[in-house]
Each structure stands twice: as C-alpha cells, then as structure tokens.
Amino acid sequence: MFKKLKNGAENYLAMFGCLDVALLKTCVLAVGILIGLAVSGRRKKAVTWGAALVFVATYIPLMYKFIPCLKDAFAVEADEDDEADEDADWDDFEEIEVEYYE
Asked: Which three-class secondary structure string do you get for 15-30?
C-alpha cells in the first residue's frame, strides 16, 4: 500500500512545474498559518521552537540538493554566453569616438 502511494506521488511530482510548486507551497503556508492561529497562548513558545526545528531540518537538505543544480545552471549559462561572444561579428559594430572635455 505505502509503496503504491509513494510511486503515485513520485509520478505526480514528475509532472510538477514552477507554478505547481508555488501553489503547493502557498497551500502548505496557509495550513501552517491556520495551525498557528489555533495554538493556545501558553503553548506558542513550544510550537515556535518545534516549527523552527522542522524548518531547519528540512531547509538544509533542500538547499544541499538545490545549490549544485543552481551552480550547474549558471555554468551552462556562462558557457552559452561565451559561445555567443565568440560567434559575434565584431565588424558589424561601428567604432565610437569619445570626446574628452578639459
């Protein structure tokens, strides 16, 4: 049962785009706000510390995976920019005369 649920979720996530991720994050944020509003005053400090712990415990692995992907994306973009510079026909540009005022 759990394996089928996991496979179904992975197939669904494979179709995710940026908008879908934004919608999911907004949904989770709204649920978090609703839960936060439901917590009584005397338990808010414990819930705050728990939420901070969960945030750190989930943020670190996410960034651990995301940062190398970001570095790769910028490396590919830099390579494409270098190729575009090499392909440019510099003869098409006119020389600009600069006048200096004294």
From this structure: CCCHHHHHHHHHHHHH
- CA dihedral sign of residues 32, 37, 43, 45: positive
To the question of pTM greater than 0.70 for the whole model, the response is: no
Helix or strand holding residue 100 (H, E)? none
Break the chain into its structural domains and give their ranges: 1-38, 40-86
pLDDT, block means (10 residues), the chain with 102 residues: 86 86 91 90 90 90 84 73 58 60 62
Q: How many CA atoms lie within 13 A of 70 on its CB side?
A: 6
Q: Could you tell me if 83 and 75 are in contact, meaning their C-beta atoms sit under 8 angstroms apart?
A: no
11 Cβ contact list (under 8 Å, min separation 6): none
* Integer Cα distance of 21 and 13 in angstroms: 9
**In angstroms, rounded to a whole number, what is the distance separating the alpha carbons of residues 2 and 13?**
16
Distance CA 92, CA 70 (A): 35
